[in-house]
Amino acid sequence: MKTDIVLAGVGGQGILSIAATIGTAALMNGLHMKQSEVHGMSQRGGDVQSHMRVSSKEIASDLIPKGAAHLILSVEPLESLRYLPWLHKDGWLVTSSTPYVNITNYPEIEDILKEIKKIKNHIIIDAETIAEQVGTKRASNMVMLGAASPFIDIPFEAFENGIRKIFGRKGDDVVDINLAALRAGREFSGRNR
Amino acid sequence: MAGEKLLLLGDEAIAQGALDAGLSGMYAYPGTPSTEIMEYIQSAPFAIDKKIHRTWSANEKTSMEAALGMSYAGKRALVAMKHVGLNVAADAFVNSSITGVNGGLVVVAADDPSMHSSQNEQDSRFYGKFSLLPILEPSNQQEAYDMTYLGFELSERYKLPVLLRITTRLAHSRAGVQRREVKNENEVSLPKNPTQFVLLPGIARKQYKDLLNKQNDLKAEAEHSPFNKYFDGQDKSKGIIACGLAYNYLIENFEDGKVPYPVLKACQYPLPKNMIHKMFSECKEVLVLEDGAPMIEELLKGYLEKENVKGRLSGALPRDGELNPNLVAVALGLKDEHGLPIPEIMKNRPPAMCQGCGHIDAYNALNEALIDYGTGRVFSDIGCYTLGALPPYNAINSCVDMGASITMAKGAADAGLIPAVAVIGDSTFTHSGITGLLDAVNDKSPITIIISDNFTTGMTGGQHSPALGKIEDICAGVGVEKEHLRIFTPLKKNHDEMVKIMKEELAYNGVSVIIPRRQCIQTMKNKELAEELKALGLK
Ligand SMILES: Cc1ncc(C[n+]2csc(CCOP(=O)(O)OP(=O)(O)O)c2C)c(N)n1
Hints:
The complex is a heterodimer. Chain A is α/β, with parallel strands linked by helices. Chain A has a single domain (2-191), classed as Pyruvate-ferredoxin oxidoreductase, PFOR, domain III (Pyruvate-ferredoxin Oxidoreductase, domain 3). Chain A is built from seven helices and six strands, in the order βαβββαβαβαααα. Chain A has helices spanning 15-28, 77-82, 109-117, 127-134, 140-148, 156-167, 172-192, and strands at 2-10, 32-36, 47-55, 69-74, 87-96, 122-125. Chain A is globular. Chain B folds into three domains: 5-190 and 199-213, Rossmann fold; 229-331, Rossmann fold (3-Layer(aba) Sandwich), CATH 3.40.50; 358-536, Thiamin diphosphate (ThDP)-binding fold, Pyr/PP domains (Rossmann fold, 3-Layer(aba) Sandwich), CATH 3.40.50. Chain B has a six-stranded mixed β-sheet with strand order 2-3-4-6-5-11, with helices on both faces. In chain B, strands 8-10-9-12-13 form a five-stranded mixed β-sheet, with helices on both faces. In chain B, strands 14-15-16-18-17 form a five-stranded parallel β-sheet, with helices on both faces. Chain B has 19 helices and 18 strands. Chain B has helices at residues 10-20, 35-43, 45-49, 60-72, 83-99, 125-130, 141-158, 168-171, 201-224, 246-252, 273-282, 295-301, 325-331, 358-369, 404-415, 426-443, 471-478, 495-506, 527-535; strands at 5-9, 25-28, 77-82, 105-111, 135-136, 162-167, 173-178, 229-231, 238-243, 263-266, 268-269, 285-289, 309-310, 378-379, 420-425, 447-452, 485-488, 512-516. Chain B is α/β, with parallel strands linked by helices. At the A-B interface, β2, α2, β5 and α3 of A face β7, α10 and α13 of B. The complex binds thiamine diphosphate (TPP). Thiamine diphosphate binds at residues 29-31, 60, 82, 84-85, 88, 382-385, 402, 425-428, 454, 456-460, 465 of chain B. Residues 29-31, 60, 82, 84-85, 88, 382-385, 402, 425-428, 454, 456-460, 465 of chain B line the site of thiamine diphosphate.
């Protein structure tokens, strides 16, 4: 198996928490992984991306070649479009619908959604509202991961175990909310793909 | 624990490799993409337990020198910096090749091709070659660990510092790393030769000859290095030399990593001459893949261009920027796949100062205070406040190297641009600003220096600032007059007062230092800092 994922968002949105959960899940399944992150300048409100590669075989490049990503997982709609050159023609684009507006020339959200809908395989999800419904807006990144999970070649239980491992220190309540968020995202994709 | 597998960034792999190799001290000044090496050591229970030196230095030169001192005393020391930091440390670094070492010394230079967070993309391998030192260039996280671990041995065997060159991509990419056996630290021991570190000409001349004499051994060493490998290939129409990380991009382009051409994976310099001879004797042309400057390509091509060498100079690859699998595919004549184009509505999202940042209030005041003088006279420096160059502030006119704000303002004032203004951060001020301030004070230059103090080294992630609690004493000690040393809190409600103070100092015909002082909002949750600020009476 092999899944190449481009994670996208804006500096400060915490895409690395998603990466950490996928990484933990992958390792618990004995898979190889490489994950290239963005540190430094762009973390100051700029666009950030992370290339996450999971495979049963050894992985060569830290970067995903263009046209090869099985999944773009974006926590921000405009940012989901920035990485289209990386998306494989049969790949999935899963994005949050909530814009993060920190530039004066941010495009109309309708225009952004129109572009996203042109992609053959896409899921647009209001992760913040769903996260609020299960307990807290802060769990929206786990809703996003849940929504993307059907397109990552790792058993769903592994993600649940990943969350238990990563959030375990913070107590059962935090684990439960994040698990609920993950499952809610998964269900949404099940209904809307 | 030997054999244990950890998931580590390239930077963290270097730190763990050093800890396992019996490190006694790390010295560094923050700089993307090298910062996480020190941060890993600072938070490693093993390092805390063993009291391994792990506090930030004032700049890269002081780190390099302190590490050399630790090596003099027989212990193993690690230094890390971003590529431009090596310019600052260059005097110590280049001369350390003549002194040589006692305890093992590994110097990490983290390059930033494509300038993700830097002013340039200089290739640190040139410094290694220039100084005639062995260079290690890992292609993955495991090698980053192994090379650091073995680098200390190499350093002690040849009694030379070893340069470990990485790039942003490896520094900030995570993968599994297998640990080796943990070694003990060295005991304190003096150099056998008591004049080894005394570079008087008579001694230096002899030691330089020793260094030259080691070069053949270093080349032979590279022939047997576990990090240099020659892979045979059926198709001799070309041979490929892949340096460091570039090797991965090559492998990525072939199913199951089976490259049909002969390949030299080159990760230890000086390069293995026999292997290179072999490639040139059996291949029609040689393609050189380097994630940096075309250093090896130029070397092999030769000034007279008698050899058929391809790479960044020939146009097979772009001359600048980071490599990636697609660029390497093109250089190999393979199909370059792409997904969909980026839609036209896409907008850039440049980094920006945080909402509520004190630098913003300082710039708003400065812009107003300068209205009567006109634009084009603000020399700035490197830090979060450099983002004041962007709209809506458009507040600064330069950003060159750490410390250059004060000295460039001085030079411009000397030329008649009066008043000239310098904007510098607290950490940058103690990194390289103090000596420039001394020049300005000695010449009574008509400049206004704004030291925007946020109690931290902000741009690189909020590290401890060596300037903390010391700035006005330093300025006064250097000779800035008390009446022209002004401090205030940059807040919207203080705007008018700030403008007034700035106008007064701009009108002064000598050196003024203005310190807008307010804590970086990104560090508000930092408990250690909060306690320190309390103890200093700053909070
Ligand atoms: C020689 C050199 N070393 C390190 C860096 C990396 N660097 C860029 S900005 C910065 C922090 C500056 O901190 P400070 O002056 O306090 O300003 P702040 O970011 O907190 O506003 C550092 C360390 C660099 N660009 N050049």
